[in-house]
Model the fold of this input.
Amino acid sequence: MSATRRQVRIGALCAAALLVFAACGGDDDDDVAAAGAPNDATDETDAPAADATGDEPAVEETSAVTNEWALTYTGGTEGPADESLEPVVIGYVNQEGGVPAFPEATIGLEAAVSYVNTELGGTGGHPVEIVECIVQAEEDGQRCATEMLNNDDIAFVMTGVMVVGNGSFYSTLSGKKPVIVGFPAVPDDFIAADAYAFTPGAVGVVKGMSTFVGEYLDDVESVAVVHADNASGQASVDLFLKPGLEAQGITDVKAVAVPDTATAPDVAAAIQAAGGDTADLFVPLLTVQGCAATYDALQSLGVQPKVLTTGLCYGTPMTSHLADLGLDDPVPDGWYFGDLGYSYFIPDDESGMSTYLSKIAEYGPADAEYTGYAGPLFANLLTSVKLVNQVGADAVTSESMRTAAAGFTGPMMLVAGPMRCGFDAVFKSLCGTQMGVQQYADGSWTSIANALNGQAIETAPAS
Amino acid sequence: MAQAAARRTQSLWLGGATAIMLLAAVVAPSDQVRALLLGIGTGALVAAIALAVVLTFRGSGVVNFASAAVAMYAAYVYDSLRRTGELVIPPLPNPLAVVEGIAHTFGAGGVELANWPTFVGLGQPKSFWPALVITLVVAAAMGLLLHLLVFRPLRYAPPLAKVVASVGVMILLQAIITLRFGGTPRPVQPVLDKQPVELPRGVTIPRDQLELAGIVILLAIVLWALFRFTRFGLATRAAAENEKGAVVLGFSPDVLAGANWVLSTMLAALLGVLVATVNGSIDPITITLLIVPALGAALLGNFTSFGLTTAAGLGIAMVATWVQFLSTRSWFPHAGGAPIPGVKEAVPFLVIVVVLFIRGERLPTRATLETTHLPFAPRPRAVPAKLAIAVVAAAAGLLFLGPTWRLAITNSLVGIVICLSLVVLTGFVGQISLFQMTLAGVAGFTMSKLAVEHGIAFPFGPLLGAAVAVAFGLLAAIPALRVRGVNLAIVTLAAAVAVENVVFKHPTWAGGVDGAPVPPPRLFGIGFGPNDSGSLDGKLPNPWFGILCLAVVALLGLLVANLRRSATGRHMLSVRANERAAAAAGVNVAGTKLLAFAIAAFIAGIGGALSGYRFGAVSPVFFGSLASLLFLAYAYLGGISSVTGAVVGGCLVAGGVAFTALDEFFGVGSEYTLLLSGLGLVCTAVLNPNGIAGAFRGVRTPALPHRRRSRQTPAPRVAPRAAAVAVEA
Done:
C-alpha cells in the first residue's frame, strides 16, 4: 500500500471517528435538565411528598411559605433576577459521565440556580451563573482547577461530589480561590485547606454513628462492619467508627472491605467474614449500589441483624430495587440511617426541607433523585447566595468569600447544628458539628436522634 | 499421545481439586466451609466469563479480553428491554456530524442537526424470555461482526495485535454503555430465587448463587460434549490443532472461527444476563473487571479444558472468599490496625504464579498459521534535527500558548514517557506487559515516601523511585523468561491487580488520611512545580514544569533512539522476531529480556515520578491495572515500535494535546475519550499495525494476507509446530 493510500485510509478513519462521536452526542436521555428551564413537573402532585408513613413525602406548604423561608435564609428579594445586571459567576466542578458519576449533585445545583434566579432575585438582583467543569479522570482535577483559577470572573468554586482528581484540584486552588465543598467524599476533601464543607460529611456521620450505638442501642457488644474499599471507607472505619465504638466499651468489631462496585455475592461473603450473621449490630458503609447489594445479601443468607447504615441507603436506587422485588416498603424495615440531622421523609419548615422538596420538584427533572447529593448541593447554592448577599454582589472577591465562608456559623439549610469551620485540625474543611439518626420501621419513619426531636448527635468537640 | 497426556493431566487437576474441596467440606470447621462456599456465586461469575474466553480461543485462537465486556453489554441490552422495551443502538456514523463539526470550527457552535436514534422501541417492556432471546440475537450479531470486522482480518497477526484489538473492543463497549446509560449503577430485576438454602453441617448459602453455579457447570458439560462428540466440535478441535489438516478435510477455519465467535458471545450474553440478575445491579465496570480472574482461570484451564477452567474459576473465587474470611482473624497480619489489604484480590495472581512454576513450559500456545511481521521498528534517522524541532516547538507552546494548551502539552509529555517504556519492552522486544503503570506507581509512591519521610527531594527522589521500579520490573521479568505473548499479558495484568491492592493500598505506601503527597520539584531554590509561578501570562500551570518534563522526554527519547540503533537494540529486535533464532545467533535471550524490562521499568518509573509532581500527590486510582491497558492502547495507537510513535501516543492520552484539540476545535468533550480510544485502537490493530506514526511515515509493512486473498481460504504456509515458535516470538 502506498503512503498516500495509507494516509487516505487514516484520514477516513479519523472522519469515521468524528462521525461516531457525533452520533453519540445524540443521546440526551441522561442529560440533566438545563438550568433556568423548569420542567413539566411543576404541579403540586408531582412534588416529592412527605409524611411519616413511608409513602412519598407530601409537601403541604404553599409556594409562598417555602419562598418566605428561602428569602429569609438567603436575604434575597422576591421576584426574578435582573438579567440586565452582570451575573455573579460561580465555578462548579463535579464528577460525571464516567464511572462513578454523581449527576444528581448537578441536578440539585441547577434546580437551585433556577429557583434563585426566578424567585429569589438572584444575588442582590444579579443573576447567578454557573461555569461547570466535569471531572472524569485524575488529570481533570488539575484541569478544572486551572480553568477555575484562570477565569477572573470566578471568585469562588463549588464542588459536587468527586472521588478522582481531588488532590490536584485542591492543591492547585489552595490559597487562591476558596472552595465550598458539596459533599466531602474522600480524605482530600476533608483535609483540604481553604475549603469549606457545611456538613459533618461522611467523617462526622460515621463518628456520630458510633456515639449513637453507645447511647441509643442496648446490648450491643459485637459489631460487624462491611465498608467500601477506598480511602474514605478505610479512614471512616479505622479513625472514627472503631475508636468511637471502643470508647463506648465495644471492642468486638470486625471490619471487611469490599470494592466500590460490590455485588450481592461479594457483600454476602463479606458479611459472613465480618460475622454479620451473628453480631449484635451490622454496619454497612457502602456506596448506593452496595446498599441494595447488602439487602440482597442479607436476604440470601437468611439473616436479619440489626442494621445501622448511612443515608445513602435510603436513596432512590434502594427504593427502586425493593419495588423490583415487589415489596411495599421503600427501604428495608427496621434499619437505622445516619444522616445530616433532618429528614427528607418528615419534612420540616425550620431546616428548609419543605422548601427544598417543593423546589427540587418544581425546578428539577421529574424523576430527580432528591435524597442523594441533590439536597446538599441545593442547600450549598442557597448558602452561597446567602454569603454573596452578605458580602454584596458587587464586592464579591475570593478574599471576601473566604472570610464569609470561614465565618459562617449557621444555621445551614438541611443540616443540623451550628457550623464551626476548622474545628478539627486534621479535617480542616469540615464545618458541620452534628448528625442525626432516623429509623424506618413498620411502614413509618421515626426520628431517633436528630434535630427534629432535639437530640441531634454532636460530632465535634465542644468549643 | 500428547493430547492423551494433556487430557490425563487435566483430569488429574480436576479430580485433585474436587477431592481437596470435598475433603475440606468434610473436615474443615463449618464456618470455614461456609466461607468457601460463599465464594461460589462470584466463582460462577468468573467461571462464566472464563468459559467464553476458552470458547473463543479454541475457535479462533484469540484470547478475548473483551469477553466480560460483551457480557456487560448484553446485560444492559437485556435490562433495557425489560424496563422500557427499548433496544439500545450503538453509535453509528452520522454524516451530518461533519457539518456540525465544521460549523463549530467556524464559530457557529449553535448548529444542531439531526442525530441517529439511540434506542429503538420494541413496544411494551418485555418479559424475561423475549428479552433474553432478543439479547442473544444481538449477541450473535455482535459475535459475527467481531469476527468479520476485527478478528478475521487479524487471523495472521501477532498476539500483540489480537490483544490490542480485544482491549480496544473492551474499551469501546464500555464507552458505549457509559455514554448511553451513564456510569451510575442500575438495578436489575432478579430472576433466580434469592432465598437461602440449607446444606449439611448447618451451612446456609444463597440459592441463586448455587443455581448460577449449577448452570455454569451444566454449560461447561454441554460445551465439553459439543467439542467431544459433535462434528462441529471435532472440526474446531482439528482446526485448533492443525489448520492445514482441517482445510484438507474440507473444513473452513474461517467458518469455524466465526461460528465459535457467535457461540462465545451468546454464551457470554446468557451468563452476563444471569450474572446481572444475581448481582442485582449493573454498571459498566463490575462485570467488565471479571476478565482479570477469568483470564487466570482460562490460563489454568490451558485455554482448552472447559472443566478445568470452570473449576479454576470457582476455585479462585472460593479461595479468595476464604482468605477474606481469614483476614478477620486476630492472627492475620495487620497493618495500621487493619488486616493487610488486597490479599483477596491477589489470590488470582498467586494461583497463576504457583501454576506457572508447576507447569512451566507446558503452557499453551495454539497452533497458528504463519504470522505477519510485527510493527515495523524503524532505525531512527536525523535524530538531532528532529529532536531540536520537536523541543523548540513544544517549548514555544509551553511558554507562549494559553493555560489550556500548556496543561495539554504537559499531560502529553508525561504520557510520552510512559509510552516510551512500552516502546522498549513491547515494541522492541515483543513482551506484552500490562504492568507499566504499576511500575510508574511504584516509583511515584516511593518518591512520595522519600520526600515526605526522609527529605529526599528532586532530583534524587525520582531517580531512587525509578530504581525501585526497576527492581519491581525485574521481578515481573521472571515470568517473562517462562511465558510469552498473551500469557505474559495475563500474568502481568494479574500482577498489576495484586500490586495495586496489596502495595498501593498498604498504609505504609498509601499513607494515612493525607495520602501520598509529592512536594513540588525545586532546584537551587527555584520551584518547578505546576502550581509555582513562572508563566508569562501569570496563570497556571507553570510552564517551567512543562519544560522540565520536556527535558526529561528529550533525554529519554534520545536514550530509546540510541538503544534502537545500538547492538543491544538489534538483539532486542532479534529476540522479538524469533527467540530460538536469536539464541542460535548468539544473543543472550534471557539477558536481553531482563535488560529490556529494567530499562522500561526505569522509564516508566520516571513517568510515575513526573505524574506525582504533576498532581502534587500519587494515588492508587491513577496507577491502577486498567490504566496500564489504556496506556498500551495509546502506545499502540501512536506506534508502539518507535520514538515517534510514543510521541503520538502521548498526544492521545486523556487531557493531552489531541483530545484538547478535539474539545477546543470541535466541542468534543472528554467523555468521548474512551470511545475514540477504543475505536481507534480496533481500527489501528486491523488496518494499520504500525500506528499513526507509522502511517505518516509511509512504511511498507506486509499487508494482512486476507486482504489479498479475501475470498478464499488461505493455505497455511508453515507447519503448526514451527508456527507456534513464530507465535512465541
Summary: Chain B touches chain A through 110 residues (CB under 8 Å). Confidence is low (pLDDT under 50) at residues 366-370, 700-729 of chain B. The longest strand of chain B covers residues 196-199. The two ends of chain B are 26 Å apart (CA to CA).
